[in-house]
């Protein structure tokens, strides 16, 4: 069975049907199924009505004949001439294509229109109930006939019989409905021809209707083919239906994201080239200057070599940050989750950064609302918090402050890093997490920044399934808010920042 299922799956994968096929089948089925049901119901109801009408007709005729037989004493007097009545019975049987039996009070058949059972005993449920004064009928749907039992009243009346007349005999009528069944079959045959004609017409109309409905989706497919060939600058505006309008908006939104990613990638390559080339250019200029001078003083030589060493350190730091980003961008990036005391971790980070803050007389404040323990990668998360606090110190004012606040609820913990620094202009807030993006490039170079710190921070936070937001006012200060789940739940795919 597993082999058969796999083969069916492979066939379906190789021969994926068009959406037109199920739509075509649905439209045809929606038209034909009610038509078929209606035809069958009409045929059955027509036959049922004919059978009921035939039963009523036979019952009326038999009742008339039964009353006549009661008046003539058909079963009571042996000297009565019954030839006329027998003729009427035979004519009635022929008219309704049936058979009539006359059964006396001793359950003996005294008359059979087929002349086959006269003198024999007839005891049946219909006969017994009829002798109790009931007119009964039963229809056999499988053999297509019905039986009707009509009582024949006794001509001798007593005082008690006037209240409840005595039954002298039973008229047992069997009538075939085969002709009605044949008529139904003929009607169904004609209906089938009509249904076949309607089916062909529905198929043709459904084919053109489905083609008309699918046309907008074909336009979308053609547009996507052009996009696959490189036409990212086009926009699609297929608004034939609400669904195609929504799809068009989603595609255009996706294309805008792809354009932004492509532009970001180009800017990233350009920025990487620039950032890596700048230190090398500085080193070459310093080295060429030294080589072009004769009898270089020791002090100048040491100064140039110090500058060269600084540029090499800067180059090394850029490369290290790039490698860190590359490792985090990998879908298989490892994250070593351990349960960590966040309060102690933040205090340790602030302890390492206090000497840097003290040089500019910046106060580092740690405000712990409650004790927090969470599942994190201690090394990576320390790097993220360190980047946020270090940036708050570097881009701050003299005699300023940096406040780190730690809080938590039942599901997440929150770290806020606020400063009294220069702030970020409103138009740049959305771009501070881009790689190599600097609001103040001159200030960044003075502080030794690579422009990758916040990009690394965001990657780390997203690896922990968290989020980061920035609020800032120019010349007032900036606040970064980090939100991380207390319990780490591995995901099937890596979430992208």
Automatic annotation (TrEMBL):
PANTHER family, from UniProt?
PHOSPHATE REGULON SENSOR PROTEIN PHOR
Q: Does the keyword Kinase apply?
A: yes
Q: Where is the HAMP domain?
A: 211-263
**Which key words are in the record?**
Kinase, Membrane, Phosphoprotein, Transferase, Transmembrane, Transmembrane helix, Two-component regulatory system
Q: What is this protein called?
A: histidine kinase
Q: Which SMART domains match?
A: HATPase_c, HisKA
Which molecular function GO terms apply here? kinase activity
- Swiss-Prot/TrEMBL catalytic activity: ATP + protein L-histidine = ADP + protein N-phospho-L-histidine
Please list every transmembrane segment annotated in the UniProt record, as residue ranges: 21-43, 193-214
State the EC number(s). 2.7.13.3
Q: Where in the cell is it found?
A: Membrane
Q: What is the lineage of its organism?
A: Bacteria, Bacillati, Bacillota, Clostridia, Lachnospirales
What InterPro entries does the entry give?
A: BphY/WalK/GraS-like, HAMP_dom, HATPase_C_sf, HATPase_dom, His_kinase_dom, HisK_dim/P_dom, HisK_dim/P_sf, Sig_transdc_His_kin-like_C
Q: Which Pfam families match?
A: HATPase_c, HisKA
Answer yes or no on keyword Phosphoprotein.
yes
Q: Which residues form the Histidine kinase domain?
A: 271-488
């Amino acid at each position: 069975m597993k082999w058969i299922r796999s083969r069916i799956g492979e066939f379906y994968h190789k021969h994926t049907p068009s959406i037109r096929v199920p739509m075509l089948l649905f439209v045809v089925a929606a038209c034909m199924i009610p038509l078929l049901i209606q035809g069958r119901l009409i045929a059955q109801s027509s036959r049922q009505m004919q059978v009921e009408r035939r039963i009523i007709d036979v019952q009326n005729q038999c009742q008339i004949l039964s009353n006549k037989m009661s008046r003539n004493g058909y079963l009571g007097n042996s000297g009565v001439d019954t030839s006329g009545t027998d003729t009427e019975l035979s004519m009635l049987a022929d008219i309704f294509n049936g058979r009539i039996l006359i059964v006396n009070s001793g359950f003996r058949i005294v008359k059979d229109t087929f002349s086959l059972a006269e003198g024999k005993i007839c005891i049946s449920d219909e006969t017994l109930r009829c002798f109790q004064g009931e007119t009964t009928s039963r229809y056999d749907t499988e053999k297509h006939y019905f039986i009707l039992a009509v009582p024949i009243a006794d001509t001798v009346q007593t005082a008690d019989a006037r209240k409840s007349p005595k039954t002298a005999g039973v008229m047992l009528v069997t009538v075939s409905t085969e002709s009605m069944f044949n008529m139904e079959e003929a009607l169904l045959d004609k209906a089938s021809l009509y249904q076949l004609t309607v089916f062909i017409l529905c198929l043709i109309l459904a084919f053109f209707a489905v083609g008309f409905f699918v046309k907008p989706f074909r336009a979308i497919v053609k547009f996507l083919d052009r996009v696959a060939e490189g036409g990212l600058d086009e926009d699609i505006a297929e608004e034939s239906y609400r669904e195609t309008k929504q799809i068009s908006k989603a595609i255009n939104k996706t294309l805008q994201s792809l354009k932004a990613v492509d532009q970001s990638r180009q800017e990233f390559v350009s920025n990487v080239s620039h950032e890596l080339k700048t230190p090398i250019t500085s080193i070459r200029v310093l080295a060429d200057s030294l080589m072009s001078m004769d009898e270089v003083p020791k002090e100048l030589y040491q100064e140039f070599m110090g500058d060269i060493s600084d540029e090499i350190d800067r180059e090394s730091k850029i490369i290290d940050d790039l490698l860190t980003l590359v490792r985090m961008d990998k879908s298989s990036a490892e994250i070593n989750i351990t349960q960590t005391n966040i309060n102690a971790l933040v205090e340790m980070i602030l302890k390492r950064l206090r000497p840097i803050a003290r040089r500019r007389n910046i106060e580092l404040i740690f405000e712990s609302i409650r004790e927090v323990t969470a599942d994190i990668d201690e090394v990576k998360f320390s790097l993220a918090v360190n980047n946020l606090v270090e940036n708050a110190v570097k881009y701050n004012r003299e005699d300023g402050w940096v406040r780190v606040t730690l809080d938590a609820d039942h599901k997440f913990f929150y770290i806020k890093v606020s400063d009294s620094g220069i702030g970020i202009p409103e138009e740049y807030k959305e771009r501070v997490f881009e790689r190599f993006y600097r609001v103040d490039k001159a200030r960044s170079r003075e502080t030794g920044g690579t422009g990758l710190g916040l990009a690394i921070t965001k990657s780390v936070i997203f690896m922990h399934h968290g989020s980061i937001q920035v609020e800032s006012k120019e010349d007032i200060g900036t606040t970064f808010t980090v939100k991380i789940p207390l319990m780490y739940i591995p995901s099937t795919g890596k979430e992208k920042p």
